[in-house]
Specification:
- The protein is α+β, with helices and mostly antiparallel strands and about 160 residues long.
- It contains five helices and six strands, in the order ββαβαβαβααβ.
- About 35% of the residues lie in helices and about 20% in strands.
- The strands form two sheets. It has a four-stranded antiparallel beta sheet with strand order 4-5-3-6.
- β1 and β2 form a beta hairpin.
- The chain is globular, with a radius of gyration of 19 Å.
- The chain starts with a strand and ends in an 8-residue tail after the last strand.
Length: about 160
């Protein structure tokens, strides 16, 4: 029997989750070890027209991320990697045009972790704090989220 990590407790368990059990049968019948499935979300940010690229990046790094992290607490993603487009004019000139200024890749241990994070940031007080800060450096209606979920990732050595 292969151990699974419980998404609710983080402790090892030899019982397959109902979703895994439904899809592939009990853990003991599956030929490969099963572990939690990484869950990814992309967040695209759009810079307010009244601030520079550097001001946008500095606010995101020094104010927005620390604010979100302080609200999220233990539900914070395993990683929150940010990419900024347009700061290097040479690279921007040879790249395809984009309509976004930043892309954040949030990596969670599994879907339950992502949904816990979302639930914490969606409480009325948290959502207001996040939205009020976004209005300081992003255009209205920004950011936009794309849920990748647990699609497989291939890395070629």
């Amino acid at each position: 029997m292969f151990p699974l990590v419980s998404s609710s407790s983080g402790k090892l368990s030899n019982q397959a989750s109902p979703v895994f059990h439904h899809c592939i049968g009990p853990a003991s019948t599956h030929p490969l070890p099963l572990f939690t499935m990484i869950f990814k979300v992309l967040i695209f940010g759009f810079r307010a027209t009244n601030i520079t690229h550097d001001d946008y990046k500095n606010h995101y790094e020094a104010v927005h991320v620390p604010l979100a992290k302080s609200i999220a607490g233990p539900t914070w993603p395993l990683s929150h990697t940010r990419y900024y487009f347009g700061g290097n004019k040479t690279l921007a000139a040879i790249s395809s045009p984009t309509d976004w200024d930043s892309m954040a890749v949030l990596t969670f241990k599994d879907a339950a972790h992502a949904f816990e994070f979302n639930a914490v940031l969606s409480t009325p007080d948290a959502a207001k704090a996040i939205h009020d800060d976004e209005k300081k450096f992003m255009v209205e209606g920004s950011p936009k989220m794309v849920v990748i979920g647990t699609d497989l990732e291939t890395t070629v050595p």
